[in-house]
Amino acid sequence: MQVYKTMARLNWPRSYVGKLVLICCAAIVAPMALVAAAQHAGLFGPSASIWAAGLAGLLGTMLALVLMNHMLAPMRATWDALEQYIQRGDLPNLPTVYGDEAGRLMAQVQHTIRALDIASKELRRLASLDPLTALHNRRWLVQRGQDEVVRARRENSPLAAILMDLDHFKGINDHYGHGAGDAALVAVAEIMRGQVRPYDLLARLGGEEFCLVMPDTDIVVASAVAERLRRSIADHPIPQLGGASVTASLGVVVLGPDDGGFLGFIGRADAMLYGAKRTGRNRVMVAA
């Protein structure tokens, strides 16, 4: 890259192609000119001049090839940057200060990859979020939840889950309208967000159903959290509902040896949730 950097500082020729042509001409013509000057000075005779000219041409061509190879360094650096980003996600650190075509190519690739990386991270973030409540979604929870199941079993630590569903939510939408129903969902999400720990997993599974996964949490603590959430939701007036509140039914479980993976674990919480609904709603049902 050093040969390219040196050539890039030249004010003439300004273009990358012009610099390549200059290198070729200089590398090939200069040795031939030296041979011609030596012959003119009488340093060797006509017969030796032929051999000297041939040798000078060969050396000049080799020098031109070597310098051309160095001048291709920006192309190799750009290719390596693209390959490393595609394979490993490494951000490039290409020079961006050179004004010829090769320099602009490196700068543009640098800018494009960094912009693409920011955009792809934002897309991944948005793909894991529920657009209404800004909580994480089911897809994210299943991925992260399975990791927590593996970790809990490896470390022999408790893992609790709370599955919650808002009561009579269809009636809320029918009576107050879907805009008010959305406002209720947002309000519930904010209540839950304000009462969980930074390392808990909180998600909206869809509709009016929410899930909270709590690492290092036994059934006693999880039951208390569920009851606190139930009361907080029931006691929270929602202006879009005319100051009324919503209620929720919750099911609480801890990870057991027969749960299999995360979906089996949540399946038991779902059974507890529907048990709470069958027995009157606005209550917490805890797995034995």
What are the key terms here?
2 domains; Alpha-Beta Plaits; elongated; alpha+beta; single chain; five-stranded mixed β-sheet; 10 helices; 288 residues
Describe this structure in words.
The chain has helices at about 1-10, 15-40, 45-70, 75-90, 100-125, 140-155, 170-175, 180-195, 220-235, 260-280, and strands at about 160-165, 200-205, 210-215, 250-255, 285. It is α+β, with helices and mostly antiparallel strands and about 290 residues long. The chain has two domains: about 1-120, no CATH class; about 140-285, Reverse transcriptase/Diguanylate cyclase domain (Alpha-Beta Plaits, 2-Layer Sandwich). Strands 2-3-1-4-5 form a five-stranded mixed β-sheet, sandwiched between helices. Strand 4, helix 10 and strand 5 (about 285) form a beta-alpha-beta unit. Helix 2 (about 15-40) runs antiparallel to helix 3 and helix 4 (about 75-90) runs parallel beside helix 5 (about 100-125). The two termini are about 70 Å apart. The model has no long low-confidence stretch (mean pLDDT about 90).
Gyration radius, in Å = 36 Å
Main-sheet strand order equals 2-3-1-4-5
Q: CATH first level of the largest domain: which class?
A: Alpha Beta
Total count of strands: 5
- Output the structural class: alpha+beta
Domain count: the total is 2
| Broad shape | elongated
| Residue share in β-strands | 5-15%
- Overall mean confidence score, pLDDT: 88
Low-confidence stretches: none
Find the CATH topology of the largest domain. Alpha-Beta Plaits
CATH superfamily (homologous) name of the largest domain: Reverse transcriptase/Diguanylate cyclase domain
Approximate helicity band: 55-70%
Biggest sheet overview: 5 strands, mixed
Instruction: Give the SSE order as H and E letters.
Output: HHHHHHEHHEEHEHE
Helix count from the secondary structure assignment? 10
Per CATH, the architecture of the largest domain is: 2-Layer Sandwich
